[in-house]
Amino acid sequence: MIFRQFFEPISSTYSYLIADKGDTVIIDPVKEDTDKYIQIIRELDLKLIISIDTHVHADHITASGRLNTLTDCDIVMGQETAAEFVTHRVKENDTLAVGSIKIKALYTPGHTDDSYSFRMNDRVFTGDTLLIRSTGRTDFQNGNPIHQYDSIFNKLLKLPDATLIYPAHDYRGWTVSTIAEEKRHNPRLQVNSEADYVAQMNALKLAHPKQMDVAVPANLKCGK
Ligand code: FE
Fold first, then answer.
1. pLDDT per residue over 68-99, tens digit each?
2. DSSP string covering 37-99, please?
3. CB atoms within 10 A of CB 35
């Protein structure tokens, strides 16, 4: 298996490339970095078969549309998404095959109503649902802190403690965590009830992302 983590500094986005037996999937690619993905796919003799977006992003434009045009790869998102040009919609527990690797879709709404996480062997790609020592905001794009509490506490934190967490963003340079680590040390998860979690999220009062007015409409067309 080939596994690569890419970082896009303007939106602090992590994208992931996973390849097995030549088949390749990219998770949450950023439009500005399309050439970089194409370069590595070419240099390593890989074939891009799937580009996944964990949700409609508000802070950067996805490369999925460009990658689909250039390589004819599938664009995968959850069935709840309003995005056009998605070629394959997944629902809870659907699996995607990449070589001999199986990637399983977990519906984890809360940051947005179309947020999915994707689990593979020893790791889970959590999008903006569960971040390292933080969680994704829930105050726009049909975000909902009650749904996020359920997604995190009743789904993601039920995965084995050693499961590696790879989020879609990090603003402090953390690159990977584990379920056990986040249970113990993520400050947003140190709550006693769903109500406490919701109150905490509703008190955040964050500014909207700079690129939001451009990114959301573009991503509703997969960046095409
Ligand atoms: Fe997001």
1. 999 999 999 999 999 999 999 999 999 999 99
2. HHHHHHHTT-EEEEEE-SS--SSS-BSHHHHHHHH--EEEEETT---SS-SEEE-TT-EEEET
3. 11
Rounded CA separation 83/136 (Å): 20
Q: How far is the CA of 180 from the centre of ligand 1 (A)?
A: 23
Instruction: For the chain, count helices (H), then strands (E).
Output: 6, 14
Ligand 1 mean position to 55 CA, how many Å?
A: 7
Residue 210 pLDDT more than 90? no
- Taking the centre of ligand 1 as the mean of its atom positions, its distance from the CA of residue 202, in whole angstroms, is 17
Do residues 209 and 215 lie in contact, with contact meaning Cβ atoms separated by under 8 Å?
A: yes
Q: Distance between CA atoms of 28 and 150, rounded to whole angstroms?
A: 23
Q: What strands lie across the sheet with 116-120, from one edge to the other?
A: 95-98, 101-107, 116-120, 123-127, 164-167, 177-178
Gyration radius of the chain's alpha carbons: 16
Distance 190 CA to ligand 1 centre (A): 22
Is CATH 3.60.15.10 the right assignment for the domain spanning 2-217? yes
Domain boundaries, the chain: 2-217
CA of 159 to the centre of ligand 1 (A): 22
